[in-house]
């Protein structure tokens, strides 16, 4: 099992690095450059024209690793990693449509919010229904740290599941605001699932292969996405990434772990909600200099220190790592580890 997880990581990493060397120059050639929001930090305007839709780089690595290293589990009848991959690809496709609209219109506005929400909601419900039909999930809700399971009426479970999936996908998307931020924040999340697989046993091998492939693919992508970024993941990458993380949480049958495991994504989203709500209620006053929170720090909010993109990467990745460790403690007894 250990060898399979290592191979999935290495293959995905190597494919991502190789694809990036060819794909990024091609994006430049077709002028697939990102338009930067004018209401953001002024120094971000220098990034205008940086290629977007770079998520294809790590998606390629993950796909190759799943189909190669994950071939034996498929022969044994375990297709969990393929279900997760297909689900994430559906969200990646929604993101691709959004990116394509932005490139076509030469603006930062792609699909309408309503269209994206409906597409995501349909995809989420279809995935949960499929997992339920195939026996990967039950209508009980595992509560981390307390190590108990709560029975949830099926209809309520599906509604909650759709909320968690769509919320996770959009939270990851919001976090993708400065060079390498969503990538770095997601690395400890992937490592968490790999670690769970390693200790929980062979029955989670297929999902572990996907998680390890995602870890390797993101590491390979980071070669090009670290500040100063040569390419952005775009909605193609961020929606795929959010879909994959949510899908893993459900296939491991512990979606509530995302409360701690995805704390950075949640805080980024909450900062956005708080800002908009407070702005409307007070007719123009703000809690943060700019939302989401990484822009607040970037612009010197609260302390006056203006965080660089590299410093934000280290901060957010470190916080994510700490909460990945906390999350592991929270599910330690679930699999009778040790």
How would you describe the overall organization of this protein?
There is one protein chain. The protein has 338 residues and is mostly helical. Helices cover 67% and strands 2% of the residues. The protein is built from 13 helices and two strands; from the N terminus they run αααααββαααααααα. The chain has a two-stranded antiparallel ribbon with strand order 1-2. A hairpin with a 4-residue loop joins β1 (140-143) and β2 (148-151). α4 (80-105) packs antiparallel against α5, α5 (113-134) packs across α6 (154-175) and α7 packs antiparallel against α8 (205-225). The protein is globular. It starts with a helix and ends in a 7-residue tail after the last helix.
Order of helices and strands: HHHHHEEHHHHHHHH
If you average the pLDDT, what whole number results?
A: 92
| Span between termini | 17 Å
Number of helices: 13
The order of strands across the largest sheet is 1-2
Please provide the count of β strands.
2
Please give the share of residues in helix.
55-70%
Pick out the low-confidence regions. none
Q: Please tell me how large the radius of gyration is.
A: 19 Å
Q: Structural class given helices, strands, pairing?
A: mainly alpha
Q: How much of the residues is beta strand, in percent?
A: under 5%
Shape: globular
Largest sheet: 2 strands, antiparallel
């Amino acid at each position: 099992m250990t060898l399979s997880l290592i191979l999935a990581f290495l293959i995905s990493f190597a494919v991502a690095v190789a694809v990036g060397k060819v794909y990024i120059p091609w994006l430049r050639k077709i002028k697939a450059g990102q338009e930067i929001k004018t209401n953001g930090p002024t120094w971000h305007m220098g990034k205008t024209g940086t290629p977007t839709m770079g998520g294809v780089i790590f998606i390629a690595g993950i796909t190759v690793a799943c189909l190669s290293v994950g071939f034996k589990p498929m022969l044994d009848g375990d297709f969990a990693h393929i279900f997760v991959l297909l689900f994430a690809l559906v969200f990646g496709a929604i993101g691709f449509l959004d990116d394509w609209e932005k490139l076509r219109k030469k603006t930062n506005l792609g699909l309408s919010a309503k269209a994206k929400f409906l597409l995501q909601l349909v995809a989420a419900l279809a995935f949960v229904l499929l997992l339920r039909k195939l026996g990967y999930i039950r209508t009980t809700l595992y509560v981390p740290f307390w190590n108990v399971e709560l029975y949830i009426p099926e209809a309520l479970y599906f509604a909650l599941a759709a909320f968690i999936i769509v919320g996770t996908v959009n939270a990851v998307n919001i976090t993708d605001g400065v060079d390498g931020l969503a990538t770095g924040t997601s690395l400890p999340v992937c490592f968490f699932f790999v670690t769970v697989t390693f200790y929980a046993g062979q029955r989670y091998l297929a999902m572990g292969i996907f998680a390890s492939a995602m870890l390797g693919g993101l590491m390979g992508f980071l070669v090009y996405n670290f500040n100063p970024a040569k390419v952005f993941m775009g909605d193609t990458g961020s929606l795929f990434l959010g879909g994959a993380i949510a899908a893993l949480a459900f296939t491991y049958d512990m979606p509530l772990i995302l409360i701690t495991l995805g704390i950075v994504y949640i805080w980024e989203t909450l900062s956005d909600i708080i800002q908009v709500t407070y702005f409307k209620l007070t007719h123009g006053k703000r809690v943060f200099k700019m939302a989401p929170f990484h822009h607040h720090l970037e612009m010197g909010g609260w302390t006056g220190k203006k965080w660089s993109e590299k410093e934000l990467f280290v901060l957010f990745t470190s916080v994510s790592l700490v909460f990945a460790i906390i999350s592991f403690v929270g599910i330690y007894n679930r699999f009778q580890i040790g």
